Amino acid sequence: MELLAAAFSAACAVDHDSSTSESDARDSASGHLPGSESSSTPGNGATPEECPALADSPTTLTEALQMIHPIPADSWRNLIEQIGLLYQEYRDKSTLQEIETRRQQDAEIHTSASGSPASEEAPEEEEDEEEEDEPASPPERKALPQICLLSNPHSRFNLWQDLPEIQSSGVLEILQPEEIKLQEAMFELVTSEASYYKSLSLLVSHFMENERLKKILHPSEAHILFSNVLDVMAVSERFLLELERRMEENIVISDVCDIVYHYAANHFSVYITYVSNQTYQERTYKQLLQEKAAFRELIAQLELDPKCRGLPLSSFLILPFQRITRLKLLVQNILKRVEERSERECTALDAHKELEMVVKACNEGVRKMSRTEQMISIQKKMEFKIKSVPIISHSRWLLKQGELQQMSGPKTSRTLRTKKLFREIYLFLFNDLLVICRQIPGDKYQVFDSAPRGLLRVEELEDQGQTLANVFILRLLENADDREATYMLKASSQSEMKRWMTSLAPNRRTKFVSFTSRLLDCPQVQCVHPYVAQQPDELTLELADILNILEKTEDGWIFGERLHDQERGWFPSSMTEEILNPKIRSQNLKECFRVHKMDDPQRSQNKDRRKLGSRNRQ
């Protein structure tokens, strides 16, 4: 949060006039989806400034609600039933639209800023922009092959303002553009829940309840494979019904975050149960595919059914985890659009905080299952040459492991050319402990030193030729013998060296962030290709994720911090593209700070009263 606060201060220093150009660029884009982190949906109505006749029209939400009639229940239910996209398709379409929206904003505003004949910004800022514009052509954007989904005429994906009831009501000429964007964000949360429920229903009816599959699977295998998906679907159904009732009250949606808050606080624990089973679910699914030919053949046959749209069973099994994560992002998008210091902002903040707790519990559930097995396996492989250190602990987990080369002899020696200058050692780095080993026959590791992680210091050597390339110094302020020890270590590449240094000493100063002064000057990227982490120090990326770059290597790796949850890790730069315009980056930081700002005492008291009232009613 300290880093976010510094980011917010830096972002606020950007020229205030940029907000007008950003809004113009957003409103000029057509067909953008609601709910994207930096997208905006254009309104069809003019503002009072543009049309004086509208100046006396009611512009507040309360006044608009008094003028508009409820949407017919049958009309709304027909819309829900006609949603033709499975949730996997809906989600892909939404995130791809977010990417395209940011690209257009980045390109349009960047071009506008560089092409304007006169600028009101300070001369120093002009020079900075000129330096950015020096390249003859901007970096080439990689085409996304999935983008055809956005223009598929056969897929129903409506905007709130495109509904016939909205078009004929005249409400678009009453509401301000910002309120229309908020309506779109809330509308996407509802329609995406309908698409999600449709996909869950298909998982149950088409796969889980298939009679042939029931005969192939042992009850214990079926229980692990499908877990408590029936409970998850039941909660989704009740949640969707409440959202539908809210939509039926009025075509102008009053709020949805109060419903989200209630379900997150009282009913979404079913997601924690389901997601915590993910490790065993994946393992069982792989074993069944490998060991049971009948299972493999039947699943392949079921996946070919047109109902599945070419999607595999695995994409249906992971739906609950994807949904609870996406739901938090959808609430974030609503939060960014509600008026500040309003009741709707308080409700959105409450809903977001409850969802964060659910998502965190889901992540912890998955990690706990896999970490316990991993720690037991590591403990069995270790033989201690020094005093034994207990490895297994409920509060300990592996951050990074791997082989490095330790330099033997003084670094200035020129007489060691006939000898082996480096010898292999193996490091296990846990969240609170470093263990240094040598690999021995039998897939075992002999431990010869250790130190608490908090007593580690690292230092990169300046370039001293090929022999000492990618070499860094590791200092143990207090090792297993209660004395200071120094190791000169060589990595296989620059990125591997940087990754080890970042993991060993996470609070050291990086290229873009000084952790001591809290000064921030971070480039940003957005994810354009999903990436699944392969190592504990890597970060899994979803399409449209926005990340601050904290460190970057010449061989194509980035150490970044995702804005929406502050998770950090390494990922290939080829999975992302840079956000070039500083004003867009500034806006992203402002939105991030608003979402994650600390609760004020009064809001916390109000939340406690609402919780107490909810429990009393139960």
UniProtKB/TrEMBL annotation:
Composition skew (Basic and acidic residues), residue ranges: 14-29, 595-607
Compositional bias (Basic residues): 608-618
Residue stretches of biased makeup (Acidic residues): 121-135
InterPro entries (UniProt xref): DBL_dom_sf, DH_dom, Ephexin-1_SH3, Ephexin-like, PH-like_dom_sf, PH_domain, PH_ephexin, SH3-like_dom_sf
Pfam family, one: RhoGEF
Region (Disordered) location: 14-55, 101-141, 595-618
GO CC, alphabetical: cytoplasm; growth cone; membrane
MF GO annotations: guanyl-nucleotide exchange factor activity
Keywords for the protein's UniProt record, in alphabetical order: Cell projection, Cytoplasm, Developmental protein, Differentiation, Guanine-nucleotide releasing factor, Membrane, Neurogenesis, Phosphoprotein, SH3 domain
GO biological process terms on file: cell differentiation; nervous system development
DH domain mapped to chain residues: 181-365
Name used for this protein in its record: Ephexin-1
Organism: Ursus maritimus (Polar bear)
Gene, per the UniProt record: NGEF
